[in-house]
């Protein structure tokens, strides 16, 4: 699993990701505690609103940032955005009103919306081998889970000695360390090609989603991912501190349990994906999350039970989210990949924009048990839609024809005897030459 780390540039980027996520994880814990400090039992409503702002920023900014970044130096862009995020983290300990939280977090989320897709789109360029890329996805999932495991554990220890406001200092340090490792990475140069018009760069990723069946299915499963994750991220502090009457440290340990389940799945995923399709793994994960949400409505009545539920939830969450990068890679050329990752970033967060307010408002207006049930229905809807939209038979190489081309056109040079005379077969993606998905084997 760790073989991609032998690649120096990827190793630097991976270390940068770990540093940033450790800091972000501490900020996640501190933000939840800040919301509880400001709103008490209604903390879920405050936190849900803040996270909804995050989703709006991600949805609105990511495609524009990707289109604009096509003309900017990658390294300078990433380092600058890390600097902005560090500055916001330094300011967060001084807030005293919810509107101040919303304003600062909007700036942080806009910077993250520009940073994350650009970062993710570079990994396939660094690791062109499919096996290495699959391992890198699992490593990235493990790194992301540090936000849910190592950061809450570290936060729980630190909270015994410092106030939660000081956790934001750790967030700032994480972004500074991330910027330093990006500076030290040797990033691949983009192929010099004639840039597409801005509007095509802006909408290109959305077009790939609209015309590629597996990507439409991936989006449906993203709804399930958001439903399960929103219950954890919004209502853990409400369940632990308001309903169970426990401490801030107990909230941090509960979030760590969720991350532990996710890390466990990430460790086994490279081997699992060698035997199971991305579609099957992701639908299975959505099913696990739906079952946990249904069970939680009745059995999440004590802290130990909640810990167990969150471990299983984390396992299902990782199954739904880790294989997504493979599906994105299969569905794009290197030229279109940044736009596709940006579109995935925006569209998946549109699903979170639905789930976060639901998790916060239902919990605040009714109770966490009702939130479990409503989010279970949302999760099941995503799983079923994913099964229906994403074809069970989804080969990478598809036979298709080009009636508009002359028989001696160079694009038809790879035709084989197994397909009709006017057809050929190759790894199929939507691009300028292929503007529709083949049907009936064509």
TrEMBL record:
| Position of the signal peptide | none
| Protein keywords | Cell membrane, Membrane, Transmembrane, Transmembrane helix
Q: Please give the name of this protein.
A: MFS transporter
Q: Which residues cross the membrane?
A: 12-34, 46-69, 101-121, 168-191, 217-238, 250-269, 281-301, 307-328, 340-358, 370-390
Concerning SUPFAM superfamilies, the annotation shows: MFS general substrate transporter
> Entry's InterPro entries?
MFS, MFS_trans_sf
Q: How does it sit in the membrane?
A: Multi-pass membrane protein
Subcellular localization(s) per the UniProt record: Cell membrane
